[in-house]
Automatic annotation (TrEMBL):
SUPFAM superfamilies: HemD-like, Tetrapyrrole methylase. This is uroporphyrinogen-III C-methyltransferase. Residues 267-495 form the Tetrapyrrole biosynthesis uroporphyrinogen III synthase domain. Belongs to the precorrin methyltransferase family. Pathway: Porphyrin-containing compound metabolism; siroheme biosynthesis; precorrin-2 from uroporphyrinogen III: step 1/1. Its EC number is 2.1.1.107.
Amino acid sequence: MANVFLVGAGPGDPGMLTLRAKEIIETCDIMIYDYLANADFLKWCKPECEILYVGKKGGDHTLPQDKINDLIVEKSRSGKIVCRLKGGDPYVFGRGGEEGEELVEAGIDFEVVPGITAGVAAPAYAGIPVTHRDHTTSVCFITGHEDPTKEESGNNWSVYGRSNSTLVFYMGVGNLPMIAKNLMDNGRAPDTPVALVRWGTRCNQTSFVSTLENVAEEARARDWKAPSIIIVGGVCGLHDKLGWFEKKPMLGQGVVVTRAREQASGLVDILRGHGACVHEFPTIRVEPLSDYVDVETAILQLARYQWTVFTSVNGVKFFWQQLKEIGLDSRIFGGMQIAAIGPATADALRERGIEPDFVPEKYVAEHVVKGLLERGIQGADVLIPRAKVAREVLPRELKEAGCNVTVLPVYETKLVQATGDEIVAALDNGDIQYVTFTSSSTVENFFDLVDPDVFRKYPDVKIASIGPVTTETVKRFGFTPAIEPDEYTIPGLVAELVRDAG
């Protein structure tokens, strides 16, 4: 079996990566990736994976192609699984064919994992179908940057000029005046629509439509840069009518997500769905305890409690893991009343066959206590599975109401980032407009990593807090959140971000 994979990473949108590509990324031992391959994909690599960047942009080569070829061959001979990750498709202007030839000459087996090429994806995200029966029945993919050592151009401008095909040029922004002139000199009408799409399918995508005679000047006026796809043809006239991606309400807005990576996917996916550029900066990591003897003891004595109060999805998750470890399931809660501090926690219980007896209208400990007291919890034996370190409001107030409360740590949170340099660099670049906090611990750990005095240098960056408890923690560091939803949930937080960005 092959141990080398030439993998297409697609055009940039994480959702455009194929399942096969993700599988290779998750299992490879050595990752060799390009400038156009979305670096977010590297988070799926194994912790011990060797990651090597060999990107090339605008003539700035980390490694020239022949050295990249040598590196792939060298790493392949280690017997480890090598993933050569390339933007788009390896065989569409990706030089994957050259890398494959080098592997064949070295006697090394390899596989190709095709990817969605930018020449199709970028136009689609800009509202441009590359074929359309009312405009054209063919499409031609063309390099806008040929090998400078070639004696003759491989581009047949006379054919391109006379053809009614949609023309899609890769890597052609620097040669745009020459491309436009050659097409017009060979018969294409000066008023032919032309579209440029930069960073197609990504959250920072931008595009515009011009004409063949004006596009070079307009691109110069806009200071248009690579990486861009150039589309020539009548289909470009559909840009405004069919454009959908650039209408997303948070397109281009940089949002920092500080949740633990294990919990962040929901928030990240919703934000990306609205077009936001998400900067994942998990300030905490959720980990199991080193010893679960106390948890197992509490589970075996569960019959002595009248109420169990779950305060987080993680509390549910880790509690159930221990149930399974000792061969038990949800039936052990028979006859007991169960509370969930919020809708996400309630859903986690429902997934395990438990319908909570109580979910408060406001998802903070104080409202949980109020609702529980209204349901006559006074004097009851109460179990609270939770994080090792958490707010004491709930157990304290229940104890004051006469309850016999057992706080049961079932997981712990730890600081995950070494420094805040990555976020500070993004702040310096103007890439961040919002920082989101979903708990007091995310606030505290964020400001452990990013000095509050440093953060004050960016007064235009808005803090979004999920609720009043988190807001109070933010204020302790000298800041006032600009955003706090009426409903203290992830959907509520996102709705307020969308409203503010709009």
